[in-house]
Amino acid sequence: MPPPIRLRFAPSPNGYLHLGHAYSALFTWSMAHRLGGEALLRIEDIDLARCKPDFYAALSEDLNWLGLSWREPLLRQSDHFPAYHAAFARLLARELIYPCFCTRKEIAQRATATDPDGAPRYPGTCRTLSGEERERRLDQGQPVQWRLDMGQAEADAGALAVKELAPETLAESSRQAKPAAWGDAVIVRKDTPTSYHLSVVVDDAYQQISHVTRGMDLYAATDLHRLLQALLGLPSPVYCHHALINGQDERKLSKSEGAKSLRQLRSEGVSAAEIRAMLGFA
Q1: 80-202 shares the fold of 1-78+246-282
Q2: Neighbours of 175 (CB within 10 A)
Q3: How confident is the model over 62-114, as pLDDT tens digits?
Q4: Helices 196-206 and 221-232: crossing angle, nearest 10°?
Q5: CATH of domain 1-78+246-282
Q6: Quick one: 80-202 is in which CATH superfamily?
Q7: Would you say 201 and 232 are in contact if contact means Cβ atoms under 8 Å apart?
Q8: Under DSSP, is residue 163 helix (H, G, I), strand (E, B) or coil?
Q9: What is the pLDDT of residues 186-219, one digit of tens each?
Q10: In sequence order, what are the residues at sequence separation of 6 or more whose Cβ sits closer than 8 angstroms to the Cβ of residue 281?
């Protein structure tokens, strides 16, 4: 039997869904239908401080209002921390990650380049700390995040291909991954025992996701995810990136910048059918 065709939409319940989320969800369900597979809903709530029960309830309500349904039970990342810790332990045992004690200010002052997100790229300051110095700081309880030793990780993994799917034609292609652009990326954050990058590759493998659909804002992150998959011995899905829905200022819609939510549009009398038509999914 061939492996299942399975896609996922994975929002974070840290605010109300807006048109950008609606487009991504509808795109995922539409692509699942075109490929003859199913779409899952996954809740990415590793940020326990910002993710709220009210937002989770609203998320489900909004997606149902759009006419989408999914299989239960859902995977909630906040229930999956042991799996992320196990992945972290595997990387640590192979000496592919190291503790970093630098503050954002220190990184900004020392960085000489930026990563694909435009943030200061980590210059590798803590990579050269002695084992004794690392242990001393850890024993003191200094705030720590764990970073990937990119040079060692690339050497271990070798050349890697990213499989891609064209959303218009469904034609598959491949390209070489170039994760070095991220530098020594954070794998475990200071405020939570994982990171987006680590949890997403662990969960995609756990749920047997065959195709990952997401916005072009995550296109570059795919190279880092492909590297983590290779280091952890995980399968690599096919990636399909869609265009972003921008606001009137041509910037990506954002919860933090007050993008009008689906709930607000609904209260103004906009119907789900109108939303679907507006986004090209009538």
Answers
A1: no
A2: 13
A3: 999 999 999 999 999 999 999 999 999 999 999 999 999 999 999 999 999 99
A4: 60
A5: 3.40.50.620
A6: Glutamyl-tRNA Synthetase; Domain 3 (3.90.800.10)
A7: yes
A8: strand
A9: 999 999 999 999 999 999 999 999 999 999 999 9
A10: 26, 27, 30
